[in-house]
Amino acid sequence: MTSTIADVKSQLGEAFKRTDEVAGQLDGALTMIEEAQAIVLAATDGSAHRAVEQLTAALMETRERIQESLAALGSAVQEVRDYSDGL
Description:
The chain is mainly α.
């Protein structure tokens, strides 16, 4: 039984590493979206054209969804880590 628990902990450790990599990639995407939003605003001098407003709104929505996803991922990982620590 001990080797089985050790195997599970090892597999969870690998999953945590992959999860950290994904979270890092999402953080990078979030940064790129924020930079794109700033570029759009700078390139249009804050213009209120409908297309600019739509693009900016889409970027903001995407950023918010990524932030929510990162928060959910972090919460799920913490729950699994807590479980793993209890093994």
